Hints:
There is one protein chain. The protein has twelve helices and twelve strands. It is α/β, with parallel strands linked by helices. The two termini are 37 Å apart. The model has no long low-confidence stretch (mean pLDDT 95).
Amino acid sequence: MRRIYLDHSATTPVDPQVAELMMKYYVEFYGNPSSVHLYGREVRKALDEARTQVATLIGADQAEITFTSGGTEADNIAIQGAAKSRAKKGKHLITSAIEHHAVLDTCKYLAKNGYDLTILPVDEEGLVSVDELKKAIRPDTILVSIMHANNEVGSIQPIEEIGKITKELDILFHVDAVQSLGKCPIDVKAMNIDLLTISSHKIYGPKGVGALYIRKGVRISPLMFGGAQERKIRSGTENAPGIIGFGKACELSGQRMKSEIPYLTGLRDKLIDGIMSRIDNVKLNGPRGQKRLSNNVNVSINFIEGESLLLSLDMIGVAASSGSACTSGSLDPSHVLLAMGMSHEVAHGSLRLSLGKQNTDEDIEFVLEELPKIVDRLRVMSPLYNKTSC
């Protein structure tokens, strides 16, 4: 059976060059990077190189990178750490309704513990209004957290515009860039970003590794206490093989972005155009063109359940999702689609197809050939569709 992986927004395969490099630090160079002997110094040198590789991809300095266990931990450190360190200045936080739960739930946790929270709405394309953000800012606003690109519908937010506003008002600006890393150019200094969250396994690196960019001069209160690792912000012996693999993945991503972005954009548009022309009662979720991630396709197909659609695709070897992999076990419709004004029924019929570098035109043709057949079969069994078509 043919196998086509279209769930790269959930995770990516580890690049062979990354895996080969990591294996050396599992087997040959296994010292603790905090040890002063040769075994430790060898690993410390590799960690420093990885820190530089990660920093280079986002336009940061090496000393501004703190390694974490992934995007979720980095989001928590950024938001809780910034809120606690600035509590004397104010306790008002701003975020958006379509953030990843690692951001949204962390902000809601703080709201239950003495902080005020404003959750900005988004338009039907999943975009935040800069004017609405300006209106929401108060004298006691200490942190704005807006994601760079949405993990479900691919909408790219006006980060540079927001950064100018927060910088002028001395408000910390946190950006979750887990989905945009490697798919959009990121320059933390030009975009006036104070805190940036990134993750390894979205760019062909290993799972369980992420990083938090903390602009020089920004104070963050740690969430964990222990050794002095990662400038005491994230104590604990470093996951050296994972960090080194992440560094290599960032280096490769920087080298490949100029060719990968237009390639994936071509496949994306071919897939969107094909679905919209071959299947009726379909809605594209999120914007078109440059405001959308190059590898993201998200559609709502009326009169069918997303779960049935995913299982049917899986049976013919196509891996996809109905939204965020982090909430795939939930029976509730996507909070992102609901925030964009979609009804529960339509949101339940969403399909996310996220492309990667190994996908081909032949993969797209296969999906466009088989998906309409699956939709027709499922709609025949749908009481809602039969009722509507009578």
